[in-house]
């Protein structure tokens, strides 16, 4: 019975170990396949390009948001419909809000990625130096040797580039894996880094052979000092000694340090090595790994975008609700836009107006801006132009100012229709009076040789007139003017 219990407990333990093993994430296969300074450099260059592209994408996203917000703001000014002007103004406010978020994100990415790029550039430079100087070898500087006169000889040597490379070139990081495949930088868990103090370990090792001896077989073996190696060597004859040079790769040929980026080797694990990276004397390899890890995390932060907007996503958006509550008369009775019960009506309007799915929203509030549907009145000519076709302030004002002018004309015409009819009594009262009787107190003025009613001046009798239609008549007449101002 006890044996069964032991076996059962062992099985459970093995199962737990198995689960733990499976739970560990795997490193990017391309990073794992680095086996030489050439591979390390190819991976570093690819990683640098990846991070630089992420920073560029963030800036492009910010520029796109800024442009979209400007287009919606222009559409709000160019629209003939007061309701659509409010709708576009709400979208412009939303785009501006997203732009503020995108600016913060882009700045964070730029700063974090910038630090990583700076250190990746330094590491790529270190590897460049290794690949260039590591293949140097020694050569005799012929006819420049000299005896010292003190039982010794100076042998003159020089460094030259050899034909033996430090490693086989790797053109780009996609060549590291077999079969070839792009690296998965977001899965990077371990980075191989050659530190500056490891450079010499990767240099080619030169060997100098001294020849021309009559005999040289007193000692055999290896690992001898120079005295022991030459102890029984005698020169064959004057001037017959020779120097030859060979070189070989060191063993091991690659001595980079493997640095872990994240705790627990998890793709979503927290970046480690912060203490070593931020100390007064930071560890070169660990600082690079830490900065790369932080840059990878920051570059994966979701960027704000208008591409997924719709009535469904906008109906609870605070800035959209606020804009429409203030702009549209039918919603101005709402006291608190943060109260879901009070805002129910405006939320239904937003969902219906801006459509429930993002494709319909895109068609009606983004793609439509590409159509030549607005009159652009320039200095001499007029033409139909799209909002997205505007390329400068001159073109923008040609559309916006023309639309504003059309609205002003309509408002003036409406004001004339709604204005009270001229007081014919006052006109008659002043008409035909001689200059001496043309008094301002009667609302008259003598002008152009005639006595006329003075505009904007009430006579004394006017002040005493009773409004038989009721006090509300004035408000009703002026209401359209008030609405016109609200819709601007």
Give the N-terminus to C-terminus distance in angstroms.
89 Å
Helical element count? Answer: 15
Indicate the radius of gyration in whole angstroms: 43 Å
Low-confidence stretches: 1-7, 17-22, 462-488
- How do the helices and strands follow one another from N- to C-terminus? HHHHEEEEEEEHEEEHHHHHHEEHHEEHH
Secondary structure tally: strands: 14
Oligomer: single chain
What percentage of the residues does DSSP assign to strands (E)? 5-15%
Total domains, how many?
3
Q: What characteristic shape results from the CA principal axes?
A: elongated
Structural class: mainly alpha
The biggest beta sheet, please? 2 strands, antiparallel
Keywords: Cell membrane, Coiled coil, Glycoprotein, GPI-anchor, Lipoprotein, Membrane, Signal
Membrane topology: Lipid-anchor; GPI-anchor
Protein name: Variant surface glycoprotein
Function: VSG forms a coat on the surface of the parasite. The trypanosome evades the immune response of the host by expressing a series of antigenically distinct VSGs from an estimated 1000 VSG genes.
Task: Supply the key terms.
48% helix; 15 helices; disordered N terminus; elongated; 488 residues; membrane; 12% strand; two-stranded antiparallel sheet; two-stranded antiparallel ribbon; glycoprotein; mainly alpha; disordered C terminus
General description of the model:
- Residues 48-108 form a coiled coil.
- This protein has 488 residues and is mainly alpha-helical.
- It has 3 domains: 23-135 and 170-194 and 258-306; 311-416, no CATH class; 419-461 and 468-487, no CATH class.
- Helices cover 48% and strands 12% of the residues.
- The chain contains 15 helices and 14 strands.
- It has helices at residues 2-23, 29-32, 37-78, 82-133, 226-230, 274-278, 284-299, 311-314, 318-327, 344-353, 358-365, 393-418, 424-430, 460-464, 472-487; strands at 136-140, 146-147, 153-154, 157-161, 190-193, 205-211, 213-215, 234-235, 242-248, 257-260, 374-377, 382-385, 444-447, 450-453.
- It has a two-stranded antiparallel sheet with strand order 1-4. A two-stranded antiparallel ribbon has the order 2-3. Strands 5-10 form a two-stranded antiparallel ribbon.
């Amino acid at each position: 019975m006890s044996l069964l219990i032991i076996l059962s407990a062992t099985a459970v333990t093995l199962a737990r170990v198995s689960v733990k093993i499976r739970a560990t994430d795997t490193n990017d296969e391309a990073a794992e396949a680095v086996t030489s300074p050439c591979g390390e450099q190819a991976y570093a260059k690819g990683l640098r390009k990846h991070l630089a592209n992420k920073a560029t994408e963030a800036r492009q996203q910010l520029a796109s948001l800024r442009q979209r917000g400007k287009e919606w703001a222009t559409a709000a000014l160019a629209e003939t419909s007061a309701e659509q002007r409010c709708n576009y103004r709400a979208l412009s406010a939303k785009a501006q809000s997203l732009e503020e978020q995108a600016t913060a994100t882009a700045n964070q990415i730029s700063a974090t990625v910038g630090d990583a790029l700076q250190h990746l550039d330094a590491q790529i430079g270190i590897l460049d130096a290794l690949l260039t100087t590591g293949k140097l070898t020694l050569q005799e500087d012929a006819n420049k040797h000299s005896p010292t006169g003190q039982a010794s000889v100076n042998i003159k040597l020089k460094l030259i580039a050899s034909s033996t490379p430090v490693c086989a070139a790797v053109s780009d990081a996609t060549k590291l894996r077999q079969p070839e495949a792009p690296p998965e930088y977001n899965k990077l868990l371990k980075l191989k880094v050659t530190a500056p103090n490891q450079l010499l370990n990767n240099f080619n090792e030169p060997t100098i052979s001294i020849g021309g001896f009559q005999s040289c077989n007193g000692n055999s073996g290896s690992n001898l000092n120079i005295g022991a190696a030459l102890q029984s060597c005698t020169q064959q004859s004057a001037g017959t000694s020779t120097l030859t040079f060979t070189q070989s790769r060191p063993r091991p040929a690659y001595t980079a340090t493997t640095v872990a980026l994240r705790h627990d080797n998890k793709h979503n694990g927290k970046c480690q090595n912060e203490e070593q990276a931020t100390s007064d004397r930071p560890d070169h390899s660990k600082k690079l790994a830490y900065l790369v890890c932080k840059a990878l995390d920051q570059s994966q932060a979701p960027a704000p975008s208008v591409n997924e907007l719709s009535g469904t996503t906008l109906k609870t958006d605070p800035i959209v609700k606020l804009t429409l509550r203030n702009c549209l008369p039918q919603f101005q009775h709402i006291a608190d836009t943060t109260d879901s019960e009070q805002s129910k009506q405006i939320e239904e309007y937003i969902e219906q107006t801006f459509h429930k799915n993002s494709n319909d929203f895109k068609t009606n509030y983004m793609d439509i801006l590409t159509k030549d549907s607005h009159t652009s009145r320039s200095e001499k000519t007029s033409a139909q132009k799209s909002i997205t076709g505007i390329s400068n302030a001159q073109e923008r004002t040609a559309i916006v100012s023309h639309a504003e002018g059309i609205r002003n004309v309509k408002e003036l015409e409406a004001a004339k229709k709604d204005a009270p009819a001229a007081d014919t009594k006052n006109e008659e009262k002043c008409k035909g009076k001689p200059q001496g009787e043309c008094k301002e107190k009667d609302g008259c003025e003598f002008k152009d040789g005639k006595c006329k009613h003075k505009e904007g001046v009430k006579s004394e009798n006017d002040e005493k007139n009773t409004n038989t239609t009721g006090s509300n008549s004035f408000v009703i007449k002026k209401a359209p003017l008030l609405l016109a101002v609200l819709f601007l």
